[in-house]
Amino acid sequence: MTGQLIANLPWVKQVAGHHTPTAFYLTTEMFDGLPLELAAAELSAIVGAPVAAEHEHERPEIYVLLSPEPDGAQIDVHIAGEVHHLRAPAALLVPPHTPHYFITTRAIPGSWCLGLLLQAEASLVHT
Amino acid sequence: MTGQLIANLPWVKQVAGHHTPTAFYLTTEMFDGLPLELAAAELSAIVGAPVAAEHEHERPEIYVLLSPEPDGAQIDVHIAGEVHHLRAPAALLVPPHTPHYFITTRAIPGSWCLGLLLQAEASLVHT
Fold first, then answer.
1. Residues B117, B59 contacting (CB under 8 angstroms)
2. Domains of chain B (ranges plus CATH)?
């Protein structure tokens, strides 16, 4: 076996707390089982619009903010009442069982927010 | 603790087989230890230019190809002599200990190739 290709992406799933279905590019069902899930959103079309109400997960989530230019994207991540201002590139850990949501405040085309959901048991994170 | 922010990204590391240092957005050292590493490259500036010679890792790697438009990016991934043609969005598993490299053949601005390196023991992948 020299590789396994999945071409019918994204897999769209409803996530509790999200206003609209979420586009997943990796899920635990893929490749005979993965220890993580990856959601991603291109941000330039959703400036000012939260994609989800405040919600929480059982698993830790890591946001990764990417943009073609430094500072080309900015998001405000609200976690348990505190606000973290992210300027691309940046990564932010959201602990499990912690209410959170984010709003994009600036994004040039080609800016992405990745949401990486880790299996709790696979994470070494201390919370 | 309501979140941990890492702002000094990317962390640039030399990877065996790569022509140029690689930009990592997540590494195993971050957040008190992660079970994965995430590299990423914006593709529109590197069409036709491989970022690495053929090389292999001890760990499985998953490529995720993202683009603002369907089919806005295409890469050819060479794995052990076979070629997989990826059109965004797509995901491809590269098994551990398998020689591979990729060439971008088309990419509109804001297209990204993610390289997610999994810890072998954290992966359920059968090889």
1. yes
2. 11-103 (2.60.120)
